[in-house]
Amino acid sequence: MPEPFQDSSSDFAPRSICQLEPTDNVAIALCDLAPGMDICRGVCTTELVPAGHKVSLRTLVAGEAIIKSNVVIGCAAADVAAGSWLHSHNITPAIVDELPVATSAQTKSIDTVDATFRGFRRADGRVGTRNYIAVLVAGNCAATAARQVAQWFDEVRLADYPHVDGVVPMTHEFGCGMEMTGEPMDLLRRTLSGCIRHPNVAASVVIALGCERNNLYGFLEQEGLVPGDTLKTVVLQEVGGTRAAIDAGIAAVQQMLPVANAARRESVSIDHLAIGLQSVLPDGLSAATANAALGEAVDLLVSHGGTAVLSDSTALVRLGAEFRARAVSEDVRAALQERRDWWRRYHHGRDTQIARSGEQDDAQRGLSNGRDKSVATLRMAGNSPIRAAVPYAGPIPTKGLVFMDAPSYEAVSATGQVAAGVNLVCLASGAGSCFSAPLAPTVKLSSNTATFLRLQDDMDMDCGSIARGERTAAEMGRAIFEHWLRIASGEKTRGELLGVGDEEFAPWPIGVLA
Prior knowledge:
By secondary structure, the chain is of the alpha/beta class. Helix content is 31%, strand content 19%. It has 16 helices and 23 strands. The protein has helices at residues 143-152, 183-196, 216-223, 236-239, 242-261, 290-303, 313-318, 320-325, 330-347, 360-364, 370-379, 410-420, 449-454, 464-467, 473-488, 494-498; strands spanning 17-18, 26-29, 38-40, 43-44, 54-56, 65-68, 71-76, 85-86, 91-92, 116-121, 127-128, 132-137, 166-170, 201-208, 231-235, 265-269, 274-280, 307-310, 386-390, 400-404, 424-429, 442-446, 461-462. Strand 10 (116-121) and strand 11 (127-128) form a beta hairpin. Residues 1-14 and 98-105 have low confidence and may be disordered.
């Protein structure tokens, strides 16, 4: 992956622009470019180009494809002189299914090092980065009871169990008022059971009202879950109501605390690390800074035998050919195409993100259209090939880079990744995000220093140093990789220190969210 700036010996001015790939005919302005500024081999800017926006590296004729990160993001609306500002005003959409494909699956050669972290090894061989007891609900009617059970176990009451990271409520709004069978119910049950079986969960309590459409006993049977030493159930209608259920839930957790506390961290190889990837509110700098560095870290992780899960079906719809070109087999390509076709049918004629050619907020952040925005998503996947494509909350079948179908809404997407088994989440953002995933520690990256400073209580790492020329994307990627190992070994993220994540469990109500 080319670096987002060059040293003084290159043809590019340092800290001024970033050409993401050698074949690109545009670059990203890493700072405000004044008119008349020499940016590349004698090419001078013809006008002010704001930081994060695109500048043409050569003359473009009307209708010519505009290429960014080897992706055609649109066409020139008219003849464009070299050094011109390129944005929504002079970029027109292209016919997506007729675009050339310039991306292919290539495994990057990386110098590896011995990489380990200290995690909790489970009986099935998987490894947790945290050691939680989860309190889940079969349906929303039991949410208050579950929340009060979890809240009862404050720091004082958990002081005698130093190896337990917390008791986490996992409430949601579904389980009633829905079909008892079919895809939505199967998806909800798959999500809940994935969290119960999650490597970061030592034990669980499932609380139900008793008359939910998601019948507790039917759920357990369908998912092959059997109550025992590390799985307890409480039904409000059977024990005598809310107060009795809260007391029963507290008693169940107390029974399981000694079992959970018996777990100990031990040194394990990094192939036990699975990272969920999220790109939230990217800006024009994201593809050159935070998402590029995240892609470098992903390539490092994959080269060590670890796993990264990419989930943004909006980007899949927009960049279908580029995604398919990175698939390792025809089966994976077919699975990607099937999901793309489903999303295109669902969004046809609807006022959703995929159906729109662009958003005003995206344009203000330097992104000209949906394909331009989706470039950042693909950048965070590095150069690793896609080895599998799985449904929402489906188990991860292989090491390496995996695509999981999910909406681009981070709460729903990350919940599915957690249910699939990721034990850490990494989120890159341009405008900033305060989100943290349930159960999995979430490392948040900022594409620019202004956002990092504005949200420094929430953001973990500042990738704005790349734009300033202080670090390369590769150097920042290695720093992210090393930070993952520390977080996986028990160091707290900013979100964890703030207690963010306990209310972010959001299963996908399929067919509702865009």
